[in-house]
Specification:
heterodimer, A: alpha+beta, two-stranded antiparallel sheet, globular, B: alpha+beta, nine-stranded mixed sheet, 6 helices, 15% helix
C-alpha cells in the first residue's frame, strides 16, 4: 500500500481538519517514525486550503506492529 | 418522531429554509420566546420580480390547528403566515395541503426566538437530511424504516447506519435520529474511507468513524445492548476489529468479524456491576451480518441471524471503560487502532434484543441489501 509522507509541520497542520465534508484527516505515524496519510485522503481532498497534499511524495506503508488487546 | 431545531441566529434577518413538508402530514411548530413580544413568519420565496404569481408554490395552503399561546390570530395566505408571539412557549400544528420544498419556504423570526419542528416520517427526514436522490435508495430506506417500525424494533435502536447515498455526508446520518449533531450519534469519519453505492469501505490503515456513543454513558445495565456490523468483505487481518471501544483490558462493546486466525468475537463490558460477555467462534468467512448481543447472563454472537455461540462470563464490580465506539477500528485507550478493511453496508447499536428480534432485524436488513442490489 502506498501512502503520502508528511513533515511534522505538515502533520500538525492537518490534525482536526476536514479534507472533504465530514471527513477528517488522520495522520498516522508508521514504523519508521514517518507521519503519513492515505491515498484516499490525498486524492479525496477538496478543501482548497490543503490541495498541497496532492503533491506529497508517496512511500510504501510500513505499519507499526498491531497490539492485540483481545482477552478471551 | 423526527425533529429539526432552529436557533435564533438562523431565524433572524433573512431567515433560513424550512424542511420539506409532506402534504397531509401534521407538523408541530414549537416556538420558544424568552424575550418580550416577538414575531415569527413562514414566507414563500417570491419570484424574480419580488411578487407571487400563479406559478408560486402555495406553501401555506393547509390548516393551522392546536394553537397554543399565540397572542393574536394567525395571519395567513397561501404564501405567507405570520404570528405575533407573547413571551412564552408557543405552538401550532400545520398540515400542508401540498408538498412543500423546503428551499421555497423561509422561516424568519425576531426577538431571539428558537423553533422546533416535529413530525413527518422518519424515512422522509432521513432522506432529506442525507440528500438521498436515487429512487431505488429512497424506496429501499423507506421500506427499511417501515419494516423496523412494524416489527417494533425502531424504538429499540440507538443508532443505525444504512450507508447509502455514496458520499460521506449521506453516510454519516443516524437513521433513527438523522440530525447533524454528536448527540444524535451522527458519524464523524476519519482517515481513508471510500464511499460508494455499495457501502462504506475503510482502508484498513487509518480509517475509522466515531459514533459519539459512549457505552458507559449511553448504555445501561437494564437495557443492556445489541450491536452489529454487516461486512461484505471476506478478509482476514491480524488483530482487526470492525467496531468497538476498550480501555486497557476492559472493553465497552467490541465486535470482530474474522481475523487471520479465523476468529469471530463479541464482547460487552459496560456495566459497573457484574456483566461481561466475552465469546468467540471460529469463522472462515468474514462476509456477513455479525451481531453481538448482551441479553443478561448470556452474551451471544450471531451471523446472518444464526446463533454461532453463547457464553456466560461474569466479573465482579469494576469501573467500566469510557470512550466512544468506533466503526472500522477499535477505540483503544482513546486512539484508533486495529483497523479493518471490511466494507460496511449496515451497522447499529440497540438495546437488548431477544433471539427472535435479532432474526427479524437480520431479515429486514438482508431485504434492505437485496432491494439495493448489493
Amino acid at each position: 500500500m502506498k501512502v503520502a509522507i508528511l513533515t511534522i509541520e505538515q502533520k500538525d497542520s492537518l490534525v482536526g481538519q476536514q479534507f472533504t465534508p465530514n471527513c477528517y484527516f488522520n495522520p498516522l505515524e508508521d514504523n519508521n517514525s514517518d507521519w503519513v496519510i492515505s491515498i484516499e485522503e490525498m486524492n479525496g481532498c477538496i478543501n482548497e486550503e490543503f490541495q498541497w497534499v496532492k503533491t506529497l511524495p508517496l512511500i510504501d506503508y510500513v505499519p507499526k506492529p498491531t497490539i492485540d488487546p483481545l482477552v478471551i | 418522531m423526527p425533529t429539526t431545531n432552529y436557533t435564533f441566529n438562523e431565524l433572524y434577518g433573512a431567515g433560513t429554509s424550512s424542511i420539506d413538508l409532506t402534504a397531509g402530514t401534521p407538523y408541530t411548530f414549537t416556538i420558544t420566546n424568552n424575550s418580550g413580544s416577538s414575531y415569527f413568519v413562514m414566507e414563500t420565496v417570491s419570484n424574480q420580480n419580488g411578487v407571487y404569481s400563479d406559478s408560486s408554490p402555495k406553501n401555506l395552503s393547509g390548516s393551522f390547528t392546536s394553537v397554543t399561546n399565540i397572542a393574536t390570530a394567525i395571519t395567513s395566505s397561501n404564501y405567507v403566515a405570520g404570528f405575533s408571539l407573547p413571551a412564552s412557549t408557543n405552538g401550532f400544528t400545520f398540515t400542508p395541503a401540498f408538498n412543500v420544498t423546503g428551499s421555497t419556504l423561509k422561516l424568519r423570526g425576531t426577538g431571539g426566538i428558537t423553533l422546533e419542528i416535529s413530525g413527518g416520517s422518519l424515512a422522509d427526514t432521513f432522506i432529506q437530511n442525507a440528500g438521498i436522490t436515487s429512487s431505488i435508495e429512497i424506496s429501499a430506506v423507506t421500506t427499511l424504516v417501515n419494516q423496523l417500525e412494524s416489527s417494533s424494533l425502531l424504538n429499540e435502536i440507538y443508532a443505525a447506519y444504512p450507508f447509502i447515498g455514496g458520499t460521506s455526508t449521506s453516510n454519516m446520518y443516524n437513521l433513527v435520529n438523522p440530525q447533524d449533531t454528536d448527540e444524535a450519534f451522527r458519524l464523524s469519519f476519519n482517515g481513508g474511507w471510500t464511499f460508494a453505492s455499495n457501502g462504506a469501505t475503510p482502508n484498513g490503515a487509518n480509517a475509522y468513524a466515531d459514533m459519539h456513543l459512549d457505552p458507559s454513558i449511553n448504555l445501561n445495565e437494564t437495557d443492556l445492548a445489541t450491536w452489529g456490523y454487516f461486512s461484505r468483505t471476506n478478509s482476514a487481518i491480524y488483530g482487526e476489529y470492525v467496531m468497538g471501544v476498550a480501555t486497557g483490558l476492559v472493553g465497552g462493546i467490541q465486535l470482530i468479524a474474522r481475523r487471520d486466525d479465523d476468529l469471530s468475537y463479541a464482547l460487552s463490558d459496560f456495566s459497573s456491576v457484574t456483566w461481561r460477555g466475552a465469546i468467540n467462534f471460529i469463522s472462515t468467512n468474514g462476509s456477513g451480518f455479525f451481531i453481538g448481543a448482551q441479553q443478561g447472563a448470556n452474551a451471544k454472537l450471531f451471523k446472518n441471524g444464526i446463533e454461532l455461540v453463547s457464553n456466560s462470563f461474569a466479573r465482579t464490580t469494576q469501573v467500566p471503560p469510557t470512550g466512544n465506539v468506533y466503526l472500522g477500528a477499535l477505540n483503544l485507550n482513546g486512539d484508533a487502532s486495529n483497523f479493518t478493511d471490511k466494507r460496511c453496508v449496515f451497522s447499529f447499536v440497540s438495546k437488548k434484543l431477544t433471539d427472535s428480534q435479532i432474526v427479524s432485524l437480520n431479515n429486514i436488513v438482508q431485504t434492505f441489501q437485496t432491494n439495493l442490489g448489493r
